[in-house]
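pasting input
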Amino acid sequence: MEFNRIDYNTLPSTNAEAVRLYKLGTITSATVITAVSQTNGKGYGSNYWESEPGKNLTFSMVCFPKEVDPSKQFILTQIISMALLETVSKIITSKPVTVKWPNDLYVGNKKIAGVLIQNFVKGSAIDVSIIGVGLNINQKVFTSNAPNPTSIINETGKEFAPDVLLSRITQRFGFYLEHLSTSSVIESVTKNYMQYLYRLGQPGKYKDKNGLFTASIAGIDSYGRIILQHENGNKQTYGFKEVEFM
Ligand code: BTN
């Protein structure tokens, strides 16, 4: 699938610009919006996304996945996670590259990319999905209080052209978008997402509204909720933001 491209030098946020252009009716087919620099890059909730101008990738893909039922929208999280994982794991081979549920990309115990998805539902269908990605490439020093950031240069010692990585990511993501109705492709994405899940099968510390506990990941359900198995064997299902990795 070909993406139209809109490149900006400076924007508050590529996601906010995507939402603005979608609401104006300007974007009606798959489009990628990039910015060299964001003045108000958004993470989840009130988090800020740090990115030194020109060093990294900050972009949003606008797509219209008509065949995805809103109750199955987690597949969009899975396909962007796999597109990123495939791209980054070809470059960084010295450490495991994994997906920290639901969609952070990790290298070892450090975060190299974050994804912010905004789906707009109209009636019983997803009208538009805006998938914002921040991938740290050539930035060496991070000054915000983001936990454990890393970048491709910090992991490999080498610089990479952001545009080359952008075209690999959009190519893989576009392939998956075109195959949302091909069950063999979707089954393999779901299988790979599970296989490359950060902390899979390892006991780790988590925090929920009742406090800290040790558990291991027992699975992800079809709505994208994480299933944690406590030390006493009990399983509990959590939605996004109901549990924190410690
Ligand atoms: C997170 O991990 O909290 C999500 C970070 C998402 C950051 C990207 S950068 C490009 C796009 N525009 C934004 O304002 N945010 C996303």
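fyi The first helix runs from residue 14 to 24.
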